[in-house]
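Input/output pair, single chain:
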Amino acid sequence: MSPRLKAITREEHLAFVAAQPSVSHMQVPSWGDVKPDWRAESLGWFGEDGRLVGVGLALLRPLPKLKRYLAYLPEGPVIDWSAPDLEGWLEPMLSHLKGLGAFSVRMGPPVVTRRWSAEVVKAAIAAPGARRLRDVEATTREPRAFDIAERLRRTGWRQNEPGAEDGFAAGQPRHVFQVPFAGRSLEDIHQGLNQQWRRNIKKAEKAGVKVVQGGYEDLPAFHALYVETAERDRFVPRPLGYFQRMWTALRAEDPDRMRLYLAHHEGDVLAAATMLTVGEHVWYSYGASTGRRRDVQPNNAIQWRMMSDAHELGAKVYDFRGITDTLDEDNHLLGLLRFKVGTGGEAVEYLGEWDYPLNRVLHRALGLYMSRRR
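Output:
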């Protein structure tokens, strides 16, 4: 029989998450508090014995002047994606969300499709003919992921491609860079860094760069560097209030859910970053740095401190989050990919985000509206 779905309490949701080795930080109850423009709903799947077997954080965003919602489950739901009756898990979710007034549902299955080793990515960047990571032969492939994708298509789900006019605004990254920690000592992880990384960490130490954990009162200093970074890297920064809300909401749920790190040198903050933790998965979430004194390598120093602390926390994965799929030398994001590749980890491709139009007219209208905003 297919699992039964109903709304659950935050406490039930959090207890289930706490028992899992890895759940996205966007699928914990407190993430709904970070998004005040969305209404959060905790969903629970129950087996025949009444035991909770899956959860999902659904964020509902209202359409102006209408009691209709976009429903979004970022990097979720947390269910058995390998189940032979996958449709039996997803159909009750669609029915429940439609009953709440949703006209379109987007989800991001936490299912890995392919992995590329650091060596393969480095070679692809250097190869003159390579244009995109997806065109490079993967180090490993996950056959079940492609079966899941086909099953989703057959049941009416549509894969959301970056830049597509259908669906709503771009969501979570499909390609990320991760450093596996499972079964590795900190020394082994250090040896896995490339020579430039190890040299820069040592250089920062000799120059007197000190990396410390910050508190709520240090968020304005982080944000000032973050705004400078946004101008340099050409993206729209989030307001300070967003990070203050993140800090308050996430740490109320778990003191280690969010940490802030700052790299000091001679009384000046040169870099800062946030780190998120759920179970055995740690994410480098937001990073910021100034153009001053880059020669003392504060970015390498802060990342190594965060990786060291993540290892001490028992992390099995250190996640650098999104990377560009393009290998074009002219792309300004390629430098960030090179930086992450230097850690010796692996590029990871997920199944991506998928849309299900419950009301095709509203779904199409919103897709057209969002495409004109981009």
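DSSP finds twelve helices and 16 strands in the chain. The first strand starts at residue 4 and ends at 7.
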